[in-house]
Amino acid sequence: MNTNQFQVIKDARIDAPKGFYATGVHCGIKRKRKDLGMITCTVPAQAAAVYTTNAFRAAPLKVTEESMEKEGILQAVLVNSGNANACTGKKGLADAYQMRADMATQLRVPDHYVGVCSTGIIGESLPMDRIQSGIHELGLQHKQKTKNEDFAEAILTTDTLVKKVQVELSIDDQHIKISGVAKGSGMINPNMATMLGFITSDIKIESVVLQSLLWKATEETFNMITVDGDSSTNDTVIAMASGLANNTSLTPQHKDWHLFVDAFTYVCRELAKKIARDGEGASRLIVATVRNAHSLLMARQISKAIISSNLVKTAIFGADANWGRIMCAIGYGDKNVVPDRVEIKIGDIPLVKEGQPLPFIKKQVAHLLTQETIPIDVDLHLGKEQATAWGCDLTYEYIKINANYRT
């Protein structure tokens, strides 16, 4: 990926692309922090979405999926935090439909032009009186450029920081913007996991093309992270394109297709990395790259096995160069690995060659393991495919956060 072909914007805004507005308010689901947010578009936007694979899908996912199936168009997304509206039965589904209807009424758009997302505690009914009051307040702020962080803050749960990315590029001599915001800290093990992601762009592109692109980008990014191995009931990533940049409608045959794909995937990847780095209680980001695998599937499985291993995660937290734990994860990640071909590096320090340990200075590796980002490089010497996965260490603070989390 050549990031020289697009510009990364430091002060990212989800409402930077033409036609988009976003805001967030406190409606009373949480005690003090913002807990209700919306993204709107001045025109019906071509849209795409991917959802959790958890069998216990939360009510808002069903409502959003129904909206998307009508025309592949969204003009607004309403998001609450602090309550997942999951495992809440018929009432929860009715509440999700009511949220959609109330938002549509405020914006004067068809119900199916609105998507709904929720995140938070499972099994509790939504305080609909507070949410409906909040939706009215959001409606009053429609088409206003509010503070940059308002929407990003409104979707957070145990996150410690907002997660946002923006890039700009040129296609057909038109200035194109792609922006993304995400939340996620615990219960992260996608296909998808506890995370919400929202991507906006002013690119002109059809929904079916955007959907294909989002699927591919998700496989390479959001589905390659883990924090604690738990997969959530609510995970959703939604992409919306206003088309107001007035480029020629983008398709895989367009001369700048790969440029847009690279920029779009970059936004997804950076959001995914920010989620992994902000794992509950995490102190370090683990980046595991597996090279020269038989297949892409093999590379992905092994890199995910490494970052998912609690033994690897705790070794990283303890700044212990325990390469044996990495070897163990490689071995169960794919049974077709040939042990005596495996090489392992942490950073630029070789630890294993041809399946055997190499001499290394423990203090040197221990110092490397105290850095904020820990690169683990594995060479299988079996083929040409490679994949990277992102995770975090496992700390005492993770136990504390989740032991004290309210139910």
Secondary-structure blueprint of this entry?
Layout lengths: L6 E2 L11 E6 L10 E16 L7 H13 L1 E11 L5 H19 L6 E8 L6 H13 L9 H5 L8 E9 L2 E10 L12 E6 L5 H14 L15 E6 L15 H21 L7 E9 L2 H13 L1 H8 L5 H11 L9 E4 L2 E5 L2 E2 L4 H7 L4 E7 L5 E8 L3 H8 L4
Parallel strand pairs: 4-5, 8-9, 10-14
Antiparallel strand pairs: 1-6, 2-3, 3-4, 3-9, 6-7, 7-8, 10-15, 11-12, 11-14, 12-13
Helix pairs in contact: 1-2, 2-3, 5-6, 7-9
Keywords: Acyltransferase, Amino-acid biosynthesis, Arginine biosynthesis, Autocatalytic cleavage, Cytoplasm, Multifunctional enzyme, Transferase
Pathway: Amino-acid biosynthesis; L-arginine biosynthesis; L-ornithine and N-acetyl-L-glutamate from L-glutamate and N(2)-acetyl-L-ornithine (cyclic): step 1/1; Amino-acid biosynthesis; L-arginine biosynthesis; N(2)-acetyl-L-ornithine from L-glutamate: step 1/4
Protein name: Arginine biosynthesis bifunctional protein ArgJ
